[in-house]
Amino acid sequence: MAHLADFNTEKKYKATVKKTERLTPRDTEEVREIQLEVEPGFECQVDQSFGVLVRTSGEFGKTSHHRLYSVADLPAKENGKQLITMLVKRCSYVDDFSGELYQGVASNYLCDRKPGDEVTITGPFELPFVVPEDKNSNLILIGMGTGIAPFRAFVKNIYRNVKDWKGRIRLFYGARSGLELLYLNDKDGDLTNYYDEETFEAFHALSPRPHWSDPIALDKAIEARAAEIVEMLSQANTHIYVAGYEKIRDMLDKAFSNILGSKEKWETRKAELVAGKKWAEVIY
Ligand SMILES: Cc1cc2nc3c(=O)[nH]c(=O)nc-3n(C[C@H](O)[C@H](O)[C@H](O)COP(=O)(O)OP(=O)(O)OC[C@H]3O[C@@H](n4cnc5c(N)ncnc54)[C@H](O)[C@@H]3O)c2cc1C
């Protein structure tokens, strides 16, 4: 994937916060669903991301801070303006040297916006999650935390716009708190209005304790479905798409090595997926 500095920030668009809602409970990490209404001229699709530009104080000569966010729902149109949805996790980190707590610039800026506030956005930019042409293709989608965002839009797009999907879609989603999953779990919820019970199943993995440093048992959720995953991986038309935080990579390597029987077997199968353009990832 390209470096962030390579993304074009020349063309900027004005967006207004239409809705902002916290999806997670108060005493856990904050993930918000934010809907933006963008000025005419900006058009993005489900398989894309967009940038958010935050003006900064000019420390080290830097006057703006640019970060990317996945389109988290099917874009809609209202009064000629595009509505786009994003899921944002409020990020902070402790500096190893000073021990001080720093707040992530863009995520805190976004989580602090109120309805009616203006935000500057860039893009749209491509994500690597392409809908395969063959509708018999199987898809294993794995999202950790806000990594669910692109897949939520992707799955809706397949069942609503692409239609007649014959392959199996298995969505594995790991989060730290149960409530973060509300919109996925709820039978009347959003995603359930679109998916097809014959071909789609979503599996949730939760952390045993919903706090920042707790592990998410995504690997356990995958290993619990080992038989089906192994069978899907034996088919040439299976794709694996992954999105989420850095630690997901090691976790998946271990889980897939376990279910296939060895690290070497997984490395060989993964290399085939990558060579066949059937593996795609967005890791941040
Ligand atoms: C294609 C793509 C799609 C994305 N989609 C989403 C999405 O849908 N939702 C979402 O919430 N995020 C998404 N991200 C991540 C997002 O772009 C930001 O990286 C994230 O919000 C943090 O940005 P920030 O400006 O708040 O933090 P920054 O100010 O950039 O820095 C904070 C983060 O940087 C790291 N860091 C920086 N300096 C140090 C240090 N000294 N010590 C330790 N750690 C340090 C830490 O991980 C920390 O959390 C996506 C990223 C990409 C590339």
Explain this structure to me?
This protein is an alpha/beta fold and 284 residues long. The chain folds into 2 domains: 4-126, Beta Barrel (Elongation Factor Tu (Ef-tu), domain 3), CATH 2.40.30.10; 138-283, Nucleotide-binding domain of ferredoxin-NADP reductase (FNR) module (Rossmann fold, 3-Layer(aba) Sandwich), CATH 3.40.50.80. The chain contains 7 helices and 14 strands. It has helices spanning 105-112, 148-162, 182-185, 218-224, 226-233, 248-260, 263-275, and strands at residues 13-22, 31-38, 48-55, 64-70, 76-78, 81-89, 92-94, 101-103, 118-126, 138-144, 169-175, 200-206, 238-244, 279-283. It has a 7-stranded antiparallel beta sheet. A 5-stranded parallel beta sheet has the order 12-11-10-13-14, sandwiched between helices. The chain has a two-stranded antiparallel sheet with strand order 7-8. Helix 4 (218-224) packs parallel to helix 6 (248-260) and helix 6 crosses helix 7. The longest helix is centred in the middle third of the chain and has 15 residues, at 148-162. The model has no long low-confidence stretch (mean pLDDT 86). The structure holds flavin-adenine dinucleotide. Residues 49, 65, 67-70, 86-89, 91, 93, 95-96, 104-108, 146, 149, 282, 284 line the site of flavin-adenine dinucleotide.
